[in-house]
Design goal:
Length: 415
């Protein structure tokens, strides 16, 4: 609901994505009055879901991980009715499919990891040692490690170039949204740890249900939708409709592009772009509940979303999600459709393209060395948060919002 209260708040938060929602929630819990300004017609930022013809279409393929500490702290997971992916991935090679499963969760899948199927015995030993250290070691040890590229880190761990080619590069390209594996090795280990310790899921009502639940806990009168901000003033913010709102503290919780515009001089990283295509085949399609990756890297990943979360499609219909690096380009969807015909071993000529979403700034470019968090204070009464100030993840966005709230509260206590 849009609020047009004229009461002066203690703090204004610009942007109702995950970081802004977390920040506003924590400030309110500390007893501050807050106005949360969101430019669009709903909360969530990039975590939005559209409903078209009975299909739920997330704005870009997104997976929800249950192991993040901020997620456990802030969300009522049972109410999200999470639908899990099967642990592991399906690897499409030039000769067919290979499964790469997690035998700790599905003991019957241990045969998938026999040497020679996808990896050599030496690679499996290196993977086992890397996985054991990340899963059971203290998270602080990961954060204290020297940072380098993920590609260099994998080589140092004893992973062969062939195993990188057939598994790590195609898989991690969909995680990092870059295929050179230049992303921070510390971020890689943190992501690997959360994948091992948590479950990758989709909320039954779409990824937009996550920020919607966070917003549902806000008191009435806090959230202003369709309230874009054109700039900051000495005393607060100037809205595009001409309103000037005054507050002692202003937190910019937007994406990096908007943050740089509102806070001149703010250093922001480059970003990654991804395009997701949603197709509806005429016939039901069965692949299983795993994510599928391609060793030829013709796409990042693909999955039959409706098998994982049946609520994403009308009864009897199938929804396929496929993501590719970069923006949509002329002819790209037609080429993708041909590649999916080979991948799924079916005729795709009649598949209906429901939508395509190009997400600019889907992730910060976390090239090594990458700080796991950046300062939130930008000056007296000015703060910034978002996934571009931390690790580009749900955990990073929520934790960044929490840090900004703590800074506001601490500074207010010292006045």
């Amino acid at each position: 609901m849009t609020n047009r209260s004229t009461a002066r708040p203690d703090a204004i938060v610009i942007g109702a994505g995950l970081a802004g929602l977390a920040c506003a929630t924590d400030l309110i819990a500390a007893g501050l009055s807050v106005r949360l300004l969101e430019a669009s017609d709903a909360v969530g930022g990039r975590m939005r879901t559209d409903c078209r013809g009975g299909f739920l279409l997330d704005r870009g393929f997104q997976v929800f991980n249950t192991s993040y500490p901020q997620v456990k702290h802030r969300l009522r997971l049972r109410e999200l009715r999470l639908r899990p992916f099967a642990p592991g991935v399906l690897v499409h090679t030039e000769t067919g499919y290979l499964k790469f499963s997690d035998p700790t969760r599905r003991p019957g899948s241990a045969a998938d990891l026999l040497p020679g199927r996808l990896a050599s015995g030496r690679d499996l030993l290196a993977l086992s040692m890397l996985t054991t250290r990340d899963m059971f070691g203290p998270v602080g040890a990961i954060k204290r490690r020297p940072d380098r590229t993920t590609l260099t880190e994998l080589a140092a761990a004893g992973v062969s170039e062939e195993f990188v080619r057939t598994f790590f590069r195609p898989f991690l390209s969909g995680v990092f949204l870059e295929d050179e594996l230049e992303t921070s090795s510390r971020f890689f280990h943190l992501v690997w740890r959360t994948m091992l310790r948590g479950t990758q899921c989709l909320p039954a009502e779409g990824i937009g249900a996550v920020p919607a639940q966070l917003a549902s806990g806000l008191p009435p009168g806090v959230l202003d939708l369709e309230s874009p901000v054109s700039g900051l003033t000495d005393d607060g913010v100037l809205c595009e409709d001409g309103r000037e709102l005054v507050a002692d503290a202003v937190v910019v919780a937007t994406d990096s592009t908007a943050a740089a515009q509102l806070l001149p001089g703010l250093a922001v990283p480059g970003t990654r772009t991804v395009t997701t295509y949603y197709h509806a085949p005429r016939r039901q399609l069965r692949l299983g509940m795993m994510l599928l990756i391609d060793t030829r890297r013709r796409f990042l990943n693909t999955s039959v979303i409706s098998e994982i979360a049946p609520t994403y499609a009308p009864s009897g219909r199938t929804l396929v999600s496929t993501s590719m690096l970069g923006p949509d380009r002329p002819g790209q969807e037609a080429t993708l459709r041909n590649n999916l015909a080979e991948t799924y071993r079916t005729d795709t000529s009649s598949w209906e393209l429901l939508a395509s979403y190009t997400v600019q700034g889907a992730l910060p470019a976390m090239t090594a060395p990458w700080p796991l968090s950046l300062p939130t204070r930008m000056g007296p009464g000015r703060y910034v948060c978002g996934d571009h100030r931390a690790t580009g993840s749900v955990q990073g966005a929520l934790a960044s919002g929490a840090r900004a709230a703590r800074a506001v509260i601490a500074d207010r206590a010292q006045r």
